[in-house]
């Protein structure tokens, strides 16, 4: 936890440029006690979910709560203008990826069903809104960011393509990571990007044609078959200037 | 397992351009039975550890062994001319990273001790040569590669710098991932690279000066603090053309 994130209702009233009180319970209190070994007078990095970042002085820490005096004086790091469309992976992989995706500064995550996406994955509780939010917050804490990526779930490919992606990719570079594509993936793309990463086993031909048909460009990542967990940061490193 | 890797002693005698017999037991036999649901007559992608890749026909599969007729007719994908020097992370992270590093095609991994590397990590069994090899093989199977990255362990920073890195980085681009460095990390570097990735908590100032003193260039990755697991693929994506 490189930055303790406060929920709006944990932060006391007051002008935004003045120190305000906050009271924290649960996981973050325990983390402050057991991992950070915080004591009264210590300073912690903090942020307000959806808001600014800054620092806090520990006023008190006991078995019940962590009391802070908080000053939020800076903006969080800018998001990358990158929207990731990701075929739903296995639930434990998805759970870990959520934190990674938040830490990487991806603006929006669109979780997609494709022909080779296992249908049973959609029943997993990792897709519950609360679960998703909790995992995203861990990634934001790691990266010292406060702004949750938007997450959207589309189980069915056709409406995703027609109703969501087709209108949305106008004015963006839309890339499809597809082994064997004739063009290799570009580096350091300026401007907004929509990137579609398929399931283990890849896209079926029909999906590739459909996505190319609305303006996606298929790009190759070389002869190595990689798991989705390293592919996402690899593509962020490659595509983002 | 996108490619079943054979050990040299599992492959029968014969001219290298002719089909040869192989007999597989243990984890890979079980994987062929339970995950691939292989049957006599099926074809599997195979490779010889340290050698070529190709395909195999299943001759028989029973509770004891998988019998194959193997033809190794292609070279594995080229390695990236990238040497990674990595401060030893927490053992479970290290174990997962070994497979990722092998799958990414990194040529050599130098595991390093730094001021902020937890000393107890060096006692972990994940550093046993057999454990390391097993994890690397999983990454090679994933990526359809056969060539194990070289792995070297250096617990002490000073001899690593003087005796290993200083002579070895001649003629290479040597980069140090260091938050706050004035230059940002380059994209698509031609030629061989040595990349040093520090521990959680970063390098101490002295280490940065020492490494810059022998020719490392500190490069920044932006304001987000990332875990080492996504940082490694992110840097590979960014640096490798």
Query: Order of SSEs of chain A, N→C?
Result: EEHEEEEHEHEHEEHEH
Q: How many β strands of chain A by DSSP? A: 11
CATH topology of the largest domain in chain A, by name, is Alpha/beta knot
Q: Give start-end ranges of low-pLDDT stretches of chain A.
A: none
Q: Strand fraction band of chain A?
A: 25-35%
Number of helices of chain A: 6
Report the helical percentage of chain A: 25-40%
User: What integer is the average pLDDT of chain A?
Assistant: 96
What composes the largest sheet of chain A?
6 strands, parallel
- Strand arrangement within the widest β-sheet of chain A reads 8-7-6-10-9-11
How many structural domains can be distinguished in the coordinates of chain A?
2
N- to C-terminal separation of chain A?
26 Å
What attributes does this structure have?
alpha/beta, homodimer, 2 domains, 6 helices, elongated, 6-stranded parallel sheet, Ribosomal Protein L25, Chain P, 5-stranded mixed sheet, 241 residues, Alpha/beta knot, 11 strands
